[in-house]
Write a structure and sequence with these properties.
189 residues, mainly alpha, 58% helix
Length: 189
């Protein structure tokens, strides 16, 4: 009854019979030497190795990337134009106070351009930080549309504080406030 097996023999060994399997189960496996955990070291990256694959983040809508990039581009134009105006702070303040109704003699007082340079620097540094954080989140495939908004708000909060502090110490603005508090009409040019 036992006829020779017509199947071809395996290339790398034969299948174990049930008796051989049971015999092998009774014999313990040879012990392998485990490395000492204290001697373990992470594999070092070589310069020619490909970068490790990043773990994909949550599925972010393509509109998030577009909205973030558009807001960063608008922010760049805004920072550029605002910084130019802030760097000529003295002339800008004279023009603004003249629009409020002060005469050129009242509005044109000696003021420093230093607060303008400080405000321009705050805007530029705030924008650079916003771009850096946005790009990090975009590369990690995380939502990033809100970062330009928060960066804009934080930078402008500092600018408004510096502007308010500077205005409260400006003699021409004090003249305007005194005239407004007394209810007097400010002279129009």
């Amino acid at each position: 009854m036992s006829e020779p097996d017509s199947r071809p023999r395996p290339q790398y060994g034969e299948y174990a019979s049930p008796e051989e399997q049971r015999a092998h189960i009774r014999q313990p496996l040879p012990q392998t030497a485990h490395p000492d955990p204290a001697e373990f070291s992470w594999p070092q990256e070589r310069p020619g190795d490909a970068p490790a694959a990043t773990v994909p983040g949550p599925n972010v809508a393509p509109t998030d990337r577009l909205v973030t990039i558009v807001m960063l581009a608008l922010g760049a134009m805004h920072v550029l134009m605002s910084s130019v105006a802030l760097m000529s702070y003295s002339a800008t303040m004279t023009e603004a106070l003249m629009m409020l109704g002060l005469t050129r003699e009242q509005a044109d007082v000696a003021r420093s351009d230093a607060p303008g340079y400080i405000m321009a620097a705050v805007l530029i540094v705030g924008y650079i930080a916003t771009v850096w954080l946005s790009l990090r989140r975009l590369r990690a495939q995380k939502r990033s549309w809100w970062i330009p908004l928060v960066g804009w708000a934080a930078a402008w909060l500092v600018v408004v504080i510096v502007q308010t502090t500077t205005l409260m110490g400006d003699p021409a603005f004090q003249i305007y406030l005194d005239l407004a508090m007394k209810g007097l009409e400010t002279p129009t040019p």
